Please model this.
Amino acid sequence: MVTAVQKPPASLTGKVTGSIAHATEILICLADDIHKVSDIARQTGFSKSTVHRVLKLMEQSQLAVQDTINRRYYLGPLVTRLASNAMTTHKRLVTCADSEMKRLSDITEETVVLDIMIGFKYVTLYEIASRLNLKVSKELKLAGPLHTTLYAGASVKVLMAQLDDKRLKMLMSAINIISATERTVTDKNILLAQILDVRKTGYAISRSERIPDTICISVPVLNYSLPVVLSVVGPDIRLQSRARQVITELKNSSIRISKNIVDIFGDRKKSISIPVVWHQP
Model:
């Protein structure tokens, strides 16, 4: 058994100094749904006067905006603009995963996909389509990044499993699950149980939940600032008998990609409420 626990952000274990560092910590708070000056000060360890001063500077740069009625601060329009192109924003994540995704493509001969969750939507960042004639592919080269709210299949369950309990509860309350096939899990209690099971096993398998006669096998990629999932998807007639082998190879690739992320981005990442435990099949 291999256990991987996402650690707290660096800001919780070490001091930061300077206006840019302060602004970074405050941006993280705003992204984490912390909007009051007093709460931001408590979370960051900064004085209220420092938080207020930095927020006013951030307002001038459109990094933050204040609601004049409730006096709370929110992420500004510049943040949305900078993050609007998912492919550009997360290009280095794709670089971290590229070699392992090519390895999986060669080994499995199936389509390999890298997805990320941004807010309550997930985005397909990168796909290596199977070279076989019978394949499952989103044809990203033609369509561009896919933003979707279809909460079905293994990849979505793995992404949702990486949310902390508060965000997971919010998402489960907000979503309206649409049935894509007769096997789509539409009962939220069953879906939640499957998500919690992913937290224990470290992988998910779905069969025909999004597309008939297909299998998707997914594992989490750790150490990034947002939930990330690595998947192999293909026709069930080919993947059914090889599922255990694919799970092992996916987990091995995920460990290497997760290490690449730390090497490139450092050890700054979100924590989740329950450790992700990978059981070797």
In short: The first helix runs from residue 19 to 31.
